Amino acid sequence: MCGIVGYSGDKPAKDILIFGLRSIEYRGYDSAGVAFSNGDHIDVVRQIGKVNSLVETLGDAYSDCTCGIGHTRWATHGRPSVRNAHPHVSCNGEIALVHNGIIENFVELKEELVAEGHHFKSDTDSEVVAHLIEKFYKGDLLEAVHEACGYLIGSYALAVMCKDEPGTIVCTKKNSPLVIGMRDDGTYLASDVVAVVDYTRDVVILEDNEYVKIEGAKTAFYDDYLKTIEPEVTYIDWDVSTAEKEGYPDFMLKEIYEQPRVIRDTLAGRLVGGRLNLDELGLTPEELNLIDNVYIIACGTSYHAGLVAKNLIEAWARIPVTVEEASEFRYRNPIIKPTTLVVAVSQSGETADTLAAIRDARIKGARVFGITNVVGSPIARESDGVIYTKANKEIAVASTKSFTGQLVSLTLLAMLLAQANGRMTTKELRVLFNELAHTAELVLRVISKPEAVNEAAKAFVNAHSALFVGRGMGAAISKEGALKLKEISYLHAESYPAGEMKHGPIALIDEGFPVIAIATKSPTYDKLVSNLQECRARGACVIAIATEGDEDIKRHADHVIYVPDCKEAFSAIVATVPLQLLAREVAILRGCDVDHPRNLAKSVTVE
């Protein structure tokens, strides 16, 4: 999982590349590097660590260069080091490239190239591509890149320069994102539109096996046979300020505070005359009524949103739902019929396993819906229909507002299915929709009162592990709470349904062991309290997320974090927010970088 940027035009390239690299640093920050087309040669500068380390190394050099490529790396092959950082160059130094993806057959290719006399400087799979292009270069960089790609197995987004073609960048992609931004003073390229949207809103989202040759503001697009094609230009319409902290100490807190707005925007225009307006899904009520089983496939936080949706779809529409990690779904033989609906949930819309899973599902005949935050992303383009979460750009690696957007979108889907098969009346739908819309105000109330969260966080400073428990909807979001805590505070955490405590997890509990319970109002509340009593009897420090007005819970918990009362179906939206705030506060107390946790990248674009 890496990020690439590039520019060729009339303006100095260095500042554009650095801005772009900082914009996509969330995609990888083990190392960073740039290469400049500098007269009759190519200059490469690389550094381990974050982009700021690269900036210090560059100093005032290369300020006059107007063509360059850059890269941020999250290591997949080879440890983080200067020699493994991108850009990579060929033996003769005439070819330089940046690569995002994984070359699955690089070992075989490397052995062949070594036998032919090529010398490698890194342990990466990416360097193989530079040597292949050098091998095939006969005076035309575009043709050499095209021929080299014919030998590659795996995924890649490539931006390549050659010393003999100054000012030129050749790009291509397969199963890895790449966008081309165009304006009169030059052409921009990046893995993510956030790196170019400050310069231009007009972009081409490159399709697999397409090529582009960039020479300043002149761009030419080609298909896999190198025949010229006319690309589709997409106008990017989102708020650039989402890429700025705007006075917040970190992006994570800013994005937590944006959640009420995400709820409102995701719901805007969705209820029209007593029916849900989700026409972009492309199915009539009659076709929706034929759906008799649902798979929700996702990874990480998105998977937890799917667990919540399972409860809602089965309760309201009475359709069986299977929630499965995308990385597992595609390697077995799931039972899929023409009446199967597959819902792919991904914040970035480019998660490699989820993308591969929906391709398999479509081959087997399923209808595929995507739920994503990124317009024009691969999952959006390859789904039969898509619901956008309207969260705008999310920068912090730990997902917060996108998760809330996913919960709201999946709730709408559950309502749609229930209305289509006649199990939810128009009146019931209106009532539920209005209560769902009201959660925006409830979330605002939660984030406005962080004192109880901050006090509870102190219980984790010296802890070595933590346990999250809940029942029903609470069991689903307890998994999200555990994930948030471990990914940004590096504190080991597990999640279990509270009823499973006596089947093993209770053995972990000793004096002061933190147990976080989702104890909001529900039919299983009394049973959950019984589980908490068992934990406290063994010395646990219990932190309860409870409904306002519940005074009894204070007898069973050391810390209580109250959330407003709401319908149980929507409790996940409200009760997740204190878990996000808690994870962030614990991470800060433990001295961790909440926006850039170690070993993690925002978009998982490789399997």
UniProtKB/TrEMBL annotation:
GO terms for molecular function: carbohydrate derivative binding; glutamine-fructose-6-phosphate transaminase (isomerizing) activity. GO terms for cellular component: cytosol. It catalyses: D-fructose 6-phosphate + L-glutamine = D-glucosamine 6-phosphate + L-glutamate. It is found in: Cytoplasm. The keyword Magnesium does not apply. Pfam families: GATase_6, SIS. The active site is at C2, K602. GO terms for biological process: carbohydrate metabolic process; fructose 6-phosphate metabolic process; protein N-linked glycosylation; UDP-N-acetylglucosamine metabolic process. Keywords: Aminotransferase, Cytoplasm, Glutamine amidotransferase, Repeat, Transferase. It is an enzyme of class 2 (transferase). Homodimer. PANTHER family: GLUCOSAMINE--FRUCTOSE-6-PHOSPHATE AMINOTRANSFERASE, ISOMERIZING (PTHR10937), GLUTAMINE--FRUCTOSE-6-PHOSPHATE TRANSAMINASE (ISOMERIZING) (PTHR10937:SF0). NCBIfam families: glmS, PRK00331.1. This is Glutamine--fructose-6-phosphate aminotransferase [isomerizing]. It comes from Phoenicibacter congonensis.
